[in-house]
Every structure is written in structure tokens, then in C-alpha cells.
Amino acid sequence: MDNWYIWKSRNRFVFENFREPPPETLALTLKEAAVWKQATLKEDVPICSTPFLDSSQIPLTLFPECQIDASWHAEDPLSGHGWALV
Q1: Residues near 9 by Cβ (< 8 Å), separated by ≥ 6?
Q2: Domain segments of the chain: what residues?
Q3: Which domain of life does the UniProt lineage start with (predicted)?
């Protein structure tokens, strides 16, 4: 990130003949680095107190299963698709 503001300052000098004072470039770099650091901090996620059920504990009759399939050929503009709820 530091190089970005140095690069932008250099481009302003080259293309706009505007010489930005180095302390301003440094201040902006430090400010943006602090903002970036704050934005990328990971928050502590509370641990769920209820255990998750795995699929072997869920009765299968409660949830229908959707089976899908497809077929195609690279040379053919058509394709076939199918699905079934079981």
C-alpha cells in the first residue's frame, strides 16, 4: 500500500507538474494503512453452544432428495437435462 501513494505522487509530478510534499504522502500512507488494518481485523465469532447434527442423525423422510443429471456434446448446440425428487 505504501508504494501506491508514492506512485500516485510521482505520477502527479510527471503528468501534472505538481510536487506533493513528502510529509503529506507519508501522512496519507500511514492513515490509509491504519484504515486498512482496521478493516481487515478478524472479529471473534462466538462459539455456538448447541451441537450441530450430522446427516446420520436426521431422519431421511423429512428431506426430499433432488437428483440431477445433464448430457451434452461440444459440437451440438443442444443438451439434455433431468432432475427427480425422491
Answers
A1: 20, 25
A2: 2-39, 60-85
A3: Eukaryota
